[in-house]
Amino acid sequence: MNVWANDLNLDPYTVDGLYNNTSTCYVQSGVIDCSNSFRTQLVFRRSLASEQGLYDHAIIQVNGVEVWANETATHHLDYGAWIPVSYDISALADGNPSVRIKFIMQSDDYWKYGGWNIDNVQIVSLQDPQGAEEQLPLQP
Questions:
Q1: 21-75 tens-digit pLDDT
Q2: Does any domain span residue 104?
Q3: Are strands 49-50 and 76-77 parallel, antiparallel or unpaired?
Q4: Is residue 6 part of a domain?
Q5: Where does residue 78 rank: exposed (0-12), middle (13-18), buried (19+ CB within 10 A)?
Q6: Is the pLDDT higher at 98 or at 9?
Q7: Which domain holds residue 29?
Q8: Residue 117 has what pLDDT?
């Protein structure tokens, strides 16, 4: 099992499970070939805890374009639950041979939260535009 998360440090003296103050960290996929993809979706599970977006920013980008960000006015707290999510990235990925997904956490110098915890990241799509009426096989 591979999980990406903020502060998965194994040193018991420095780990606190929280992202650092005044920092930017990210994880980015390698190049994903979506040349034959249609109705492309980004599907994954997350457990995200972030201060409101006015101060700290949890962001998902596809090829440098923001496709999701935490809300400005409220804290984002998944309370340790693994939440299945899906985002339509077809406008950026369909037919594109060079797609990159990036999860970003940017923080100010005050409150700290748990940040991103991401698992089971998948790019899901139809391979044949003729099958546009079919449902995408998304994980629960």
A1: 777 888 899 999 999 999 999 999 999 888 888 888 999 999 999 999 999 999 8
A2: yes
A3: antiparallel
A4: no
A5: middle
A6: 98
A7: 19-124
A8: 87
Q: Where are the beta strands (DSSP E) in 1-133?
A: 4-5, 24-28, 32-34, 38-46, 49-50, 57-62, 65-69, 76-77, 83-88, 96-99, 101-106, 117-126
What local confidence, expressed as pLDDT, does residue 139 receive? 43
Q: What is the CATH number of the domain that holds 29?
A: 2.60.120.260
CA 102 to chain centre: 7
Retrieve residue 20's tokens: 């650092």
- Whether 131 is in a domain gets the answer no
Q: Global pTM?
A: 0.81
d(CA 5, CA 83): 14
3-state secondary structure of 92: helix
- Please check whether residue 137 lies inside any domain of the structure: no
